[in-house]
What does this fold into?
Amino acid sequence: MTGKDARMDRKILAREVDRWTERLLSDGYCVIPDLMPDTTAALDQDLACAFEETPFCRGGFYGERTKRFGRLLRRSCHAESLVMHPLITGIAEEILSPWCDTIQLNLTQGIAIHPGALAQLPHRDQDMWRGEVGSIEYLVNVMWPFTRYTADNGATLVWPESHGPRSLLPPIPFAESPIELSPGSPLLFLGSTLHAAGGNRSKEIRRGAIVSYCLGWLKPYENQWLAYPPEIARRFSPELAGLVGYRQHRPNLGNYEGQCPSVLLSGAADEPLGATDSLRPDQEHSVEAFVADQKLRAA
It folds into this structure.
């Protein structure tokens, strides 16, 4: 690919990111048709044993006729293509970047809703964190369907335009919509969007995966460092390793011995380390001015 072709591709990608970001912020959700049907089919095949062997969930929220499991990046090489899709990560960064220095992977989870499953309690995923709501977006969810999603087999229910400032309103003046999907056509929705898994009134199993991204300074839903310890993360690309947590979020958040945790992937962590500032530009300027003043006084 020539430099001109790469620049053109970046321009096309940027336009697509802007297009779908606008839709997502307007409606609280969007569906991107036929994005990765072949990859999701391959991932579904790789996860067949996990779907078979995983016990049903316990508890009314997860669903007692539902199976869920995480660590998809360890279970299949195809999971990385979903997690790192440039259009998806571009949208997530566009949505979340006003409130963070870097985004992080919040969750990868395989989900199978079996016949007889009840509808899930309507909820907003942002409520897992007890921060300000109505003006901040904490999370972008991506539901990747492996099988068709229908109103009968438990398609995700979404309350359109229930996001953002409307999430502060107790009554929901909008009816829920079952979002029917074909395999490989992801449903994106915000952490502030009211949603739920639908009930499965059919005889077929609804299978898919949820991948979500959140602000880099939050505690993620799935403990990424246990899911992908250094011996596993060393096999990842630097970009993927950073997304699962092997990078600092300024100022100095998530550090290891005062340094970026990516040192755990290079072997340098076996040696004594000296803590090194990792600050935002405004903090750097403040510190520099303060230190300069102290040196001047001490001279």
Remarks:
- Residues 3-27 form the longest helix (25 residues).
